[in-house]
Amino acid sequence: KNEPGEVGFYAKEDDDVFERLDANDIHSLESKTGAELVAVVSAWRVRDYIWYSDNPDLFLESAIYLRSTYPQFDIGCECNPDPNWTAYDDLPPSESAG
């Protein structure tokens, strides 16, 4: 939510927080819920973490702490059925995907 710098989508402070979130929270949520992070989509001042879960209620309950942990971000969730895991087939692979 900080004003972005001259280069990039986010301010340096936001990038630092995203690194902490990625290092600390992603694995924890996967372990607790069985959900799988399948994509991270970035746009101007927006970052979407896209998860697949066979138990969305457990995932949402387990992820609620993110709002108080990262109050500088407007964190929200939405659930959409996708039993065949096809909704994001058109996303390009990450440069670091391997």
Instruction: Write down the overall mean pLDDT.
Output: 81
What's the order of the H and E elements? HHEEHH
Major sheet strand order: 1-2
- Helicity level, as a percent range? 25-40%
Number of helices: 4
Low-pLDDT runs of 5+ residues are none
Q: How many β-strand runs?
A: 2
How large is the share of residues in beta strands? 15-25%
State the shape: globular
What Rg is obtained from the alpha carbons, in whole angstroms? 14 Å
Amino- and carboxy-terminal Cα gap: 30 Å
Please give the oligomerization state of what you see: single chain
Structural class: alpha+beta
SSE layout and pairings?
Elements (H helix, E strand, L loop, with lengths): L11 H13 L1 H8 L2 E8 L2 E7 L3 H8 L1 H5 L29
Antiparallel strand pairs: 1-2
Give a verbal description of the structure.
It is a single chain. 35% of the residues lie in helices and 15% in strands. It has helices spanning 12-24, 26-33, 56-63, 65-69; strands at 36-43, 46-52. Strands 1-2 form a two-stranded antiparallel ribbon. Strand 1 and strand 2 (46-52) form a beta hairpin. The protein is globular.
Jot down its keywords:
15% strand; alpha+beta; 4 helices; 98 residues
Offer a concise description of the structure.
The chain is an alpha+beta fold and about 100 residues long. The protein is about 35% helix and about 15% strand.
